[in-house]
Amino acid sequence: MNSIRSTHVIAGFIGLAAFWVPIFARKGGVNHRLFGKIFKYCAYIVLGGAILSVMLHTGQGLSEGAGPKASPGSFAFLMFLGYLAIVTFIGLRHGLQVLENKNDLTAMNIGFNRFMAWLAIATSTALIIYNIYFKPPNMIVLFALSPIGFGIGRERKCCTIGCLMARYAGPSGSAASPGSFSSIQSMRNNV
Known about the structure:
Layout: H1 2-24, H2 30-63, H3 72-100, H4 111-134, H5 139-167, H6 181-190
Helix pairs in contact: 1-2, 2-3, 3-4, 3-5, 4-5, 5-6
C-alpha cells in the first residue's frame, strides 16, 4: 500500500507541475506537446493508483467485517474516492479523445465510450442510494458531488448520439460537415 501511495503522490506532484507548462507554452509547440503528454501519463498513474488503493482498502475492510452497515462513514469515504477517480478518469479520457479526434468526432462513437457514459451515471446513482440507505456522516458532500457523474455521463451520451447523427447527416461538403464539431454541437442542442 505504501508503494501505491508513494507512486500516487510522486506522479501527482510531477503531473501538477507539468500541467502549467502547456497552459503558458505556445499551442502545438514542442514544450506544449511534451509536457501535455507528461501530464496525461501522470494523471493516468494517479487515477490507476487511486482506483487500486480504493479496491484494496475496500477488500481489506470487508475481510475484517467493516462493511457499509458497520462503518458507513469509512465506507462512504472509500466510495467518494472511488467515484472521484472514476469520473476524473472519464473526463480526462474524453478530453484527450476530443483532442485526438478533433477533425472527426464520430471516431469517438465506440462501445467503450458509451459504457463510460453509463458508468458515470451509475456511480452517481450508487452514491445517492448509499446516502439514502446508510446516511453516513459525510452525506452532504456525497449528495453535493453526485451531479458530476450525471453531467459527465450525459455529456458523453450526447456526444455519442451526436456522433451517430452527424455520421448520417447531409453531404460532407456542407457548411457543417458530418463529424465536425459544429454539426455535433447543433445536433446535441436538439437531443
